[in-house]
Amino acid sequence: MEKIQSDCPYPGCFFCVMKEANPSKRRASVLKFFRELPSQDDDGQVLPISGLWNTAMAHPNDPEFINLGIFECMSALIWKGLKNRRWLSHDQNIYIPYYAAHIIGSYTMNMEEFAERAVRAGVIPPLVELLRGRLTWVEQRVAVRALGHLATYPSTFPAVADHGEVLELAIQLASSSLEIVYSHFYQFVDRRIGYHCDLLTRGMGGVEMESRKAEEWASQLQCWSLQLINCFAFKSEFLHDICKADFLVKLPGMWGGLVNENSPAGVGLLRTICQSKLGRGHVANIPSVVEALCNIARSSDDWQYMAVDCLLWLVQDSNTCHKVIDRVASTLIDLANISMLGDYKKLGDTIVTVLQECMQQYANSRNSISTHTKEQIDELLSSKQSFKLEKNMPKEDLHIKQAAALVVKLEGNSLFSSGNIAGAAAKYSEALALCPMKSKKERVVLYSNRAQCYLLLQQPLAAISDATRALCLHSPLNRHAKSLWRRAQAYDMLGLAKESLLDAILFINECSQSNDPDLSLKQNKVPDYAERLVKKQMRTAWLFREAALKHGGIHCEGEASDAFGQEADDSEWETASESDAENDATGEADDETEWKNDNQV
């Protein structure tokens, strides 16, 4: 190896090697460094490994180190840490297996060619040992990340699948990851392992920062486990192992939390499962999973379209349609006014076609659809027919219908103000029947007003349905502030904390951008009623909640743990919908009228 500068305390220093100006000499020195590093026991080995970690994160597509043996080196270092506990406990070597697995994952996340090189270098066996939990959950996290990347590519998936225990380990980890991180790290501040704290915060934070990062890493551990399982789910031979009822029923609750919103998590895996006939059969047999998919499909979740895909595939499959149609029809009907969502350019038309074909399929079938579902679908088909007829209707006739709907709506507003909530709801229904289908803005108001009535009448399912229809008609999609708030309250009444939380947060975001004096945030202050609901649902939807309850709710000190780590007195929420209706801007009927613009919608 090239002679290093005299002021460097480490012979063969990697950083000095990288300063070599001659490219061929530098490559030769790096090659020698990678070959010799696993057999050395010098202090300070973690320094070049952490430097390589930074390089891999910054330049994951750079082939230089791939060609010089970095995968062989990292694999050997992981084995060394697993087999030589004395070496692992010396100096700062405890960090090395983590960095080594992370480096493998970074260099294989984009390039199939690099993944193939990694497999030939023998990285899978030591990664599997880390996945088993031979060290700690911190190393499990980066091992499942790396294996997930290797399993993504057609050429390297078989090498991962050859280790038969990988799928089972990933399923176990997805199911238990939150509890593992809570009980092994989050729960007891004074027992936290030092190097875990350093890795989580990079030495930049205290207990509160450690706790926040632990929640983020726990979510990643679960989501990356689901990503690995997802690679197996595309292969029919693995579906029987994946589609066990006790695992499927947990998937809708695996949502990544607010700290990992970029992962489709459980619903993403369900979508892959529902792409196969075998998978749809398993999902259709679990009513709670189907119901959860309906909730996600109606929600303002970024992965709403994935749940919609699942529902449509279940209805289109003749073997599962009769099992789910009575449960999912109302959800699909509520979404029938959406135009673009995900890959769908005309989602509403797709929904209408699918439900119409379902009706025709079961017209003379032994597997019948309930009368209520038939009536709902017939009503949808009639509304679509009315929309077509309106295109040829004289403008004068449309104006008459608009004026009549406005009169009836104002009557509903008057009844609402006088406390006759049921009467107001009936008037809004009458106004909807009169209002032209193309008058989208007015229909948004009518649906949202009726949703408020249903809230006060303690009919949360009806309120969710109407608020969803208003949000689907609104442009942009899912951004009508008052409907978001009303649906958030309805979800709260049903105990659907995640859905309520997402709507409440979106409501606050919309208020911050609104020109409506009733909604705009005064002095950039979040309304008290919205802040209370968000705090409540953040406690209830907290990723560690179940683990905390199971392990006695012991929590670390500080404001964050007061909010999330213990049971709070929620008695003030028993009548939240009623009290907030009186205090917030949505507690009275809306009187938004833009008839002139509606003619151009």
Can you tell me about this structure?
- There is one protein chain.
- The protein is built from 34 helices and no strands.
- The chain is mostly helical.
- The termini are far apart.
- α5 runs antiparallel to α7, α5 crosses α9 and α21 packs antiparallel against α22.
- The longest helix is centred in the middle third of the chain and has 27 residues.
- 45% of the residues are buried.
- InterPro entries: ARM-like, ARM-type_fold, ARM_7, TPR-like_helical_dom_sf.
- It comes from Oryza nivara.
- This is ARM repeat N-terminal plant domain-containing protein.
Protein traits:
Serine Threonine Protein Phosphatase 5, Tetratricopeptide repeat, disordered N terminus, disordered C terminus, elongated, 601 residues, Leucine-rich Repeat Variant, mainly alpha, 66% helix
Characterize the biggest β-sheet: none
Shape: elongated
Low-pLDDT windows of residues: 1-6, 554-586, 593-601
Radius of gyration: 29 Å
CATH topology of one domain, anyone? Leucine-rich Repeat Variant
Q: Kindly state the mean pLDDT as a whole number?
A: 88
Distance between the termini: 73 Å
CATH architecture of one domain: Alpha Horseshoe
Q: What is the number of helices? A: 34
Q: Provide the CATH superfamily of one domain.
A: Leucine-rich Repeat Variant
CATH class of one domain: Mainly Alpha
Oligomer: single chain
Number of strands: 0
Strand content is: under 5%
The computed structural class is mainly alpha
Determine the fraction of residues in helical runs and give it as a percent range: 55-70%
